[in-house]
Amino acid sequence: MIGVILAGGQSSRFGSDKSHLLLPGRNITLLQHLLSVLSALPCLSGTAISCRSEQLPLLENFVSSRFVLDHTHGENGKPTPLRGLISTIETLDDATLVIPCDLPLMTTSTLALLANARSQRATPKTLRTAFVHDCGMMEPLVAIYEKEALPHLLDALRKQLLSLHDAIPPERQILVPSGDRSPFFNLNTPADLCALAGLS
Predict the structure, then answer these.
(1) CA separation, residue 109 to residues 27, 34, 114, 134 (Å)
(2) What is the pLDDT of residues 10-49, one digit of tens each?
(3) For the structural domain made of 2-199, what CATH number should be given?
(4) CA distance to 2, 12, 30, 136, per residue, from 85 (Å)
(5) Spatial CB neighbours of 159, under 8 Å, sequence gap ≥ 6
(6) Which of 2, 3, 87, 183 is the most buried (most CB within 10 A)?
(7) CA atoms of 162 and 115, how far apart (whole Å)
Protein backbone atom coordinates (compact mmCIF):
# COMPACT_ATOMS: atom_id res chain seq x y z
CA MET A 1 0.00 0.00 0.00
CA ILE A 2 1.24 3.48 -0.94
CA GLY A 3 0.44 6.73 0.83
CA VAL A 4 -0.54 9.50 -1.58
CA ILE A 5 -1.13 13.21 -1.04
CA LEU A 6 -3.55 14.82 -3.49
CA ALA A 7 -1.90 18.18 -4.16
CA GLY A 8 -3.17 18.90 -7.67
CA GLY A 9 -5.95 21.30 -6.71
CA GLN A 10 -5.78 24.92 -7.79
CA SER A 11 -6.35 26.38 -4.28
CA SER A 12 -8.74 28.93 -5.79
CA ARG A 13 -10.44 29.73 -2.47
CA PHE A 14 -7.12 30.14 -0.68
CA GLY A 15 -5.52 32.27 -3.38
CA SER A 16 -2.15 30.48 -3.59
CA ASP A 17 -0.75 26.96 -3.61
CA LYS A 18 -1.38 25.64 -0.10
CA SER A 19 1.19 22.87 -0.34
CA HIS A 20 4.06 25.36 0.17
CA LEU A 21 2.42 27.16 3.07
CA LEU A 22 4.50 27.32 6.25
CA LEU A 23 2.46 26.07 9.20
CA PRO A 24 1.99 28.63 11.98
CA GLY A 25 4.70 28.33 14.61
CA ARG A 26 6.57 25.62 12.68
CA ASN A 27 9.37 25.77 10.13
CA ILE A 28 7.71 23.19 7.92
CA THR A 29 5.33 23.38 4.98
CA LEU A 30 1.92 21.76 4.90
CA LEU A 31 3.14 19.24 2.33
CA GLN A 32 6.22 18.35 4.39
CA HIS A 33 4.03 17.82 7.45
CA LEU A 34 1.73 15.42 5.62
CA LEU A 35 4.66 13.51 4.11
CA SER A 36 6.08 13.00 7.61
CA VAL A 37 2.69 11.79 8.84
CA LEU A 38 2.48 9.23 6.05
CA SER A 39 6.13 8.18 6.31
CA ALA A 40 5.61 7.17 9.94
CA LEU A 41 3.03 4.53 8.97
CA PRO A 42 4.81 1.13 8.90
CA CYS A 43 2.13 -0.41 6.66
CA LEU A 44 3.10 1.80 3.71
CA SER A 45 5.67 0.76 1.14
CA GLY A 46 6.25 4.35 0.07
CA THR A 47 4.74 7.78 -0.53
CA ALA A 48 3.78 9.77 -3.60
CA ILE A 49 2.35 13.16 -4.48
CA SER A 50 -0.42 13.61 -7.03
CA CYS A 51 0.01 16.99 -8.77
CA ARG A 52 -0.28 18.97 -11.97
CA SER A 53 2.68 19.15 -14.35
CA GLU A 54 3.15 22.88 -13.77
CA GLN A 55 3.65 22.24 -10.04
CA LEU A 56 6.63 19.93 -10.52
CA PRO A 57 9.48 22.48 -10.65
CA LEU A 58 8.61 23.98 -7.27
CA LEU A 59 7.57 20.72 -5.62
CA GLU A 60 10.82 19.03 -6.56
CA ASN A 61 12.71 21.80 -4.77
CA PHE A 62 10.85 21.20 -1.51
CA VAL A 63 10.26 17.49 -1.20
CA SER A 64 11.83 14.17 -2.07
CA SER A 65 9.06 11.80 -3.10
CA ARG A 66 7.56 10.10 -6.11
CA PHE A 67 5.24 12.23 -8.25
CA VAL A 68 2.13 11.19 -10.16
CA LEU A 69 0.78 13.66 -12.71
CA ASP A 70 -2.95 14.31 -12.82
CA HIS A 71 -4.68 13.72 -16.12
CA THR A 72 -8.25 14.11 -17.34
CA HIS A 73 -8.72 11.14 -19.67
CA GLY A 74 -9.14 13.38 -22.69
CA GLU A 75 -11.41 15.91 -20.98
CA ASN A 76 -10.60 19.58 -20.59
CA GLY A 77 -12.07 19.87 -17.12
CA LYS A 78 -10.34 21.21 -14.03
CA PRO A 79 -8.24 18.89 -11.86
CA THR A 80 -10.39 17.06 -9.33
CA PRO A 81 -9.63 14.56 -6.54
CA LEU A 82 -11.35 11.84 -8.60
CA ARG A 83 -9.05 12.42 -11.58
CA GLY A 84 -6.02 12.56 -9.29
CA LEU A 85 -6.99 9.30 -7.62
CA ILE A 86 -7.56 7.56 -10.95
CA SER A 87 -4.15 8.69 -12.21
CA THR A 88 -2.54 7.48 -8.99
CA ILE A 89 -4.04 3.99 -9.04
CA GLU A 90 -3.33 3.56 -12.76
CA THR A 91 0.29 4.66 -12.32
CA LEU A 92 1.18 2.93 -9.05
CA ASP A 93 -0.99 -0.20 -9.52
CA ASP A 94 -1.36 -0.67 -5.76
CA ALA A 95 -3.75 0.01 -2.91
CA THR A 96 -3.67 3.71 -2.07
CA LEU A 97 -4.08 5.49 1.25
CA VAL A 98 -5.05 8.92 0.02
CA ILE A 99 -5.18 12.23 1.88
CA PRO A 100 -5.72 15.77 0.55
CA CYS A 101 -3.10 18.48 0.88
CA ASP A 102 -5.14 20.65 3.23
CA LEU A 103 -5.11 18.82 6.57
CA PRO A 104 -2.61 20.60 8.85
CA LEU A 105 -3.74 18.69 11.97
CA MET A 106 -3.74 15.18 10.50
CA THR A 107 -1.80 12.63 12.55
CA THR A 108 -0.19 9.25 11.98
CA SER A 109 -2.27 7.73 14.79
CA THR A 110 -5.48 8.80 13.03
CA LEU A 111 -4.45 7.18 9.76
CA ALA A 112 -3.35 4.07 11.64
CA LEU A 113 -7.01 3.55 12.66
CA LEU A 114 -7.87 3.37 8.97
CA ALA A 115 -5.05 0.97 8.14
CA ASN A 116 -5.88 -1.29 11.11
CA ALA A 117 -9.55 -1.49 10.12
CA ARG A 118 -8.54 -2.49 6.60
CA SER A 119 -6.18 -5.20 7.83
CA GLN A 120 -8.76 -6.67 10.24
CA ARG A 121 -12.02 -6.32 8.34
CA ALA A 122 -11.30 -6.17 4.61
CA THR A 123 -12.52 -8.95 2.33
CA PRO A 124 -11.84 -9.56 -1.39
CA LYS A 125 -14.99 -7.50 -2.06
CA THR A 126 -13.75 -4.43 -0.17
CA LEU A 127 -12.93 -1.49 -2.44
CA ARG A 128 -12.70 1.41 0.02
CA THR A 129 -11.97 1.88 3.73
CA ALA A 130 -13.01 5.35 4.83
CA PHE A 131 -13.69 7.41 7.95
CA VAL A 132 -17.23 8.38 8.90
CA HIS A 133 -18.19 11.04 11.45
CA ASP A 134 -20.93 10.78 14.07
CA CYS A 135 -23.21 12.88 11.87
CA GLY A 136 -22.98 10.24 9.12
CA MET A 137 -20.71 12.28 6.83
CA MET A 138 -18.02 10.18 5.18
CA GLU A 139 -14.46 11.34 4.39
CA PRO A 140 -13.82 9.91 0.90
CA LEU A 141 -10.56 11.86 0.63
CA VAL A 142 -9.07 10.33 3.78
CA ALA A 143 -9.47 6.73 2.76
CA ILE A 144 -7.86 3.59 1.41
CA TYR A 145 -8.77 2.60 -2.14
CA GLU A 146 -7.96 -0.88 -3.40
CA LYS A 147 -6.66 -1.03 -6.96
CA GLU A 148 -9.76 -3.08 -7.84
CA ALA A 149 -11.77 0.12 -7.25
CA LEU A 150 -10.41 1.58 -10.49
CA PRO A 151 -13.29 0.44 -12.79
CA HIS A 152 -15.81 2.06 -10.43
CA LEU A 153 -13.81 5.30 -10.35
CA LEU A 154 -13.53 5.36 -14.14
CA ASP A 155 -17.27 4.75 -14.42
CA ALA A 156 -17.93 7.68 -12.08
CA LEU A 157 -15.70 9.88 -14.26
CA ARG A 158 -17.50 8.79 -17.44
CA LYS A 159 -20.81 9.70 -15.79
CA GLN A 160 -19.29 13.01 -14.66
CA LEU A 161 -19.96 12.12 -11.03
CA LEU A 162 -16.86 13.95 -9.85
CA SER A 163 -17.66 13.51 -6.14
CA LEU A 164 -16.05 10.44 -4.62
CA HIS A 165 -18.88 9.83 -2.15
CA ASP A 166 -21.00 7.76 -4.54
CA ALA A 167 -18.21 6.28 -6.66
CA ILE A 168 -18.04 3.07 -4.60
CA PRO A 169 -21.06 0.85 -3.80
CA PRO A 170 -21.90 1.09 -0.06
CA GLU A 171 -21.76 -2.67 0.38
CA ARG A 172 -18.15 -2.72 -0.83
CA GLN A 173 -16.67 -0.34 1.69
CA ILE A 174 -15.65 -0.31 5.34
CA LEU A 175 -16.60 2.74 7.40
CA VAL A 176 -14.41 3.59 10.38
CA PRO A 177 -15.73 5.92 13.14
CA SER A 178 -13.54 9.01 13.17
CA GLY A 179 -13.85 9.90 16.86
CA ASP A 180 -11.93 13.16 17.26
CA ARG A 181 -12.72 15.44 14.30
CA SER A 182 -9.82 17.86 14.79
CA PRO A 183 -7.42 15.95 12.46
CA PHE A 184 -9.92 16.60 9.63
CA PHE A 185 -9.71 20.39 9.93
CA ASN A 186 -9.56 21.70 6.34
CA LEU A 187 -7.34 24.62 5.35
CA ASN A 188 -9.38 26.07 2.48
CA THR A 189 -9.36 29.86 2.95
CA PRO A 190 -7.22 32.57 4.56
CA ALA A 191 -9.77 32.64 7.38
CA ASP A 192 -9.02 28.97 8.04
CA LEU A 193 -5.35 29.86 8.35
CA CYS A 194 -6.21 32.43 11.02
CA ALA A 195 -8.25 29.81 12.84
CA LEU A 196 -5.36 27.35 12.62
CA ALA A 197 -3.00 29.92 14.15
CA GLY A 198 -5.39 30.14 17.08
CA LEU A 199 -5.37 26.34 17.48
CA SER A 200 -1.57 26.04 17.31
Answers:
(1) 22, 13, 9, 19
(2) 554 544 566 677 777 777 888 889 999 999 999 999 999 9
(3) 3.90.550.10
(4) 12, 20, 20, 23
(5) none
(6) 3
(7) 25
